[in-house]
Q: What sequence folds into this?
């Protein structure tokens, strides 16, 4: 009987010790997620395979200042400046991005032919044109 009680006590003690050593550390509740650049998508979101042309916003200008594309193609504007910018139609409503943060992009698919002049509403001296054929 003593032997059985001793074995039971040893097993119990071993279980308690094992349980104490297997506890995991609590998650870091103060961790702050790494911010990711935002991506703004225009009214015509890109499809998986369209031809894509790029415009860079750098040194407070659009590069290239004029872009020629075909109907159905996407244009991606990338903000490479340290300041926010927009892509805003000079007339009409074909283009109208939200504020594009540094490092973020704005994509728009052109579904009709025409010449689309645009500017940055924050920095009006930034001007560009997309010619859709």
A:
């Amino acid at each position: 009987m003593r032997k059985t009680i001793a074995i039971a006590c040893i097993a119990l003690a071993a279980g308690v010790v094992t349980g104490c050593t297997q506890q995991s550390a609590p998650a870091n509740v103060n961790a702050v997620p790494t911010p990711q650049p935002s991506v703004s998508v225009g009214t015509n979101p890109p499809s998986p395979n369209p031809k894509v042309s790029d415009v860079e916003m750098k040194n407070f200008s659009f590069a290239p200042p004029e872009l020629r594309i075909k109907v159905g193609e996407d244009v991606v504007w990338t903000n490479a400046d340290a300041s926010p910018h927009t892509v805003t139609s000079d007339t009409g409503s074909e283009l109208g991005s939200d504020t594009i943060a540094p490092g973020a992009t704005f994509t728009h698919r052109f579904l009709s032919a025409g010449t689309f002049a645009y500017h940055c509403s924050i920095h009006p001296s930034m001007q560009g044109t997309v010619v859709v054929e």
Observations:
- The helical segments are 2-21.
- Residues 71 and 112 are 6 Å apart (CA to CA).
- The chain has one domain: 39-132.
- Residues 3-9, 11-41 have pLDDT under 50 and may be disordered.
